[in-house]
Records
---
Amino acid sequence: MRYRLVNINKLSGYEASLYSIYLEDEQRTLFERFLEENKNSFKSELTNILLRLNTIGHDTGARKQFFRSDEGKPGDGVCALSDIPKSNLRLYCIRYGSLIVILGGGGFKSKSIRALQEDKKLEKENYLMRQISLDIRKRMADKEIFFTDDYKDFEGDLNFNNEDDE
Amino acid sequence: MSKAEAYNSSIIDEIFDSITPDEDDKIRKRMLLAARIDIGIKAKGWKKKDLAEALKKRRSEITRWLSGTHNFNTDTLFDIERVLNIGLVTLKDVPKEQVIKFHLVVSEKVASANPTSYSDTLNDKSLIDLYYGKKSKSFAVSNNCSN
């Protein structure tokens, strides 16, 4: 998979930077794909999610309390934006403190399932974010990606090509 | 070192265009309220469980309050204000700022000096004396007050 990290201009602000994963093959980000997939069935939920992300970027920062943590492996930062009451639309993210969030994909989590692994779509989206978190951590360990001095942005080689590793 | 590209998305713009300012305001305020309660808990040296115990609530309920999605009722907010000793609901009117405008008109009769230029006026000793007190002056001062 070829992808790069992009900063979502509209949502990023003084309090936090919001990123997503631009998929070179699809010519869109994971977050845009999530919006496209759900815009007809879950319009009000998407509106709510977008406004909350906008508030995180411009007003509150990515406070831990706004996310369901522990959606990935320990320490990988994979989380989900908290449920809106009476809705189970999950958006998976990777959170780096309160200053950076990478938005991924997600989907509807039925009340009839407990673990995300019971739903193929959610499992795929969640495991993709786990993989991306791992890719970024490797780049950081190799000193190819850094945080900027204010910890609000990434800099370095933000283009990934997992086919090189296969 | 290269930073990430600033990315603009047409679908994000499209959804934003359909959002009313009221929706935006409501969600922002819910999240700011949740953030303020969290700051209040930490300022008191408490954890979520302490607030839960103080208000006889389940911890999961406090988690929901702090998620920024909860629609609080006023009694709950008053209880939180009381135990955390913070302000969440403003009831007193904030005094309206008053703007008072003064119009000051100063006029003075001076002997005709018939200066040829502004700098001549400034250098004319008799005029300087006139301005700074050797001769009596008459000032007409008026003011208008309006809110």
Note: The interface with chain B takes residues 4-11, 19-20, 22, 29, 31-32, 35-36, 39, 46-48, 50-52, 54-56, 59-60, 63, 65-66, 82-85, 146, 148, 153-158 of chain A (CB under 8 Å).
---
Amino acid sequence: MKTHNQMAKLTYREAIREAIREAMQKDERVFLMGEDVGRYGGSYAVSMGLLEEFGPERIRDTPLSESTFVGAGIGAALGGMRPIVEIMTVNFSLLAMDQIVNNAATYLHMSGGQFNVPLVIRMATGGGRQVAAQHSHSLEGWYAHIPGIKVLTPATIEDARGMLWTALQDPDPVLIFEHAGLYNMGGEVSINAGPVDIDQARIRRSGRDLTIITYGGSLFKALNAAETVAKEDIDVEVIDLRTLRPLDDQTFLDSVAKTHRAVVVDEGWRSVGISAEISARIMEGVFYELDAPVERICSAEVPIPYAKHMEYTALPQVETIVTTVKRMVHHDG
Amino acid sequence: MTKKSSVKDAVTQIDRAHALHLLHQMLRIRRLEEKSAELYSSMKIRGFLHLYIGEEAVAVGVIEVLKPEDNVVATYREHAHALLRGMSAGVIMAEMYGKQEGCSRGRGGSMHLFDVKTRLFGGNAIVGGGLPLAVGLALADKMQGKQHVTCCFFGDGAVAEGEFHESMNLASLWQLPVLFICENNLYAMGTALRFSHSVTDLASKASAYAVAAASVDGMDALAVEAAAKHAATAVRAGKGPYFLECRTYRFRPHSMFDAELYRSKAEVEEWKKRDPIVTLIQCLEDLGLFRETDLQELELQVATEIEEAVTFAEAGAWEPVEELMRFVYSEREAK
């Protein structure tokens, strides 16, 4: 007998797999398609075992034709199905950019509201695994530029488990970016963990001195940094955006109004990225509440290098966050 | 694997009423397009306007064999397809005017005609962009056990796109009910087929993916209809996708911005001798099935229809700018 307080240990990967499994069981219109999702078990082993459970009609291995299997996902969604399309990694999604930006994002609008596209696209994102420039992008901020799609960035096990079903209930295209560095992360969730909202940011740590605004793989670096500076009596609030479009700015604006200092941590590049958007919204929304300029900790403006020491230096790290937070708080004007 | 459909086969079974119906359909398109060009010149219609004049036999022949529950995916040159599927000329015209009464409430214009009632899934301005959608629509039908055909129109230009090859492969691999209609008008905007394809026999490219393929004279409505009927029957019977190349020609410029520097007037005049409307009338006359008053009667009907369409569009309202942000995200829950 299940009770509400029973907890299950899951990895981020298993949480997504459970979410897919549950969706497939609950709704026969749901199916998964993408490269190596079936016989291989998923390039990050997310869909391992699902082919055996649901069969090749609903767990569809596709050829290496990103544009066409994403477009087919759009077509299948228009045709009454609820596809989950897996694109191996965000870098390969660039081969499907046409379908995502020109079709998925526009069909509802171009048709004057006649054709919505209830499609979910999942893909891995992020660096930190020494897979060099082409496999380390964090381009979720790019996609967040596009009206018509929703962009989710689950960081926690709970969100990995709960966002998918909500995304499948959404009448419009939803992109889910799973940070590749999180798949092995373990954690506990209630065995009854269910769908979660996909439109609210969350305060993952409350604090009074400074707000860190982040999402995805950088969340844990931010939380780690917050614990480090806590030893020096600096109390940091950490906000997990969870969804980059539509962006819940109220949560971080309220937080900055309370703490008066803000740092954005984003694995994307600094120039023209989501960090710039957040900074601008803070300026627009709570400028007179600020005790210091908004700062940004982003990836260095280089293609992400292979060698471990160079890659480490290129990406946002706990130490950089700690140093920045201390400087901002101590340099109190 | 490719074969030529015989025009004679079609002609031997000719039925006067049916042939006149096809002629009527072609005239509706021709006059709608001519009126559109005129309204473009008087600045009632703006943006890009791509006319189908010269290619009428293709859409008429193909759409004739489709059923109401079939899906149609078309290109930016799609006024004809919308009209033939059952969208009224008035709604098409209103959309081109940018009026609220247009199918997309003025948000799409000439290139983006959509109609949920007649299962017209655009109106796609990205060359080749509709092919994957057609594959997906057919996949949805197959997974839901529906016996529908998804008919996807595209030009010779799209055959050079990666999405064409990916879509042929996937539709064939999964044996999906897609009827691929290549409207080969010999030019990808201003680049002739021979300057953009290493192999100019387009049907052979579909054959390379084990897709059943045929070519037909796209200036002959009866031949197109016969070939499309054969193709659609195979698709509907679950024999997988079918590629039908319709060899046609566009009499007008690519769009209203095209100075036509890439082809000679003589070439255009040569093709005009094969005008699909003239061809069909000639065929009927040869068989003694055409009466002198037929054309007049049809033209009168069509003129009335087009006039009413313009009146409808003129009388239409502008979408209030307060409505600007609508239809970015759905206003209703998914079912």
Note: Chain B has 13 helices and eight strands.
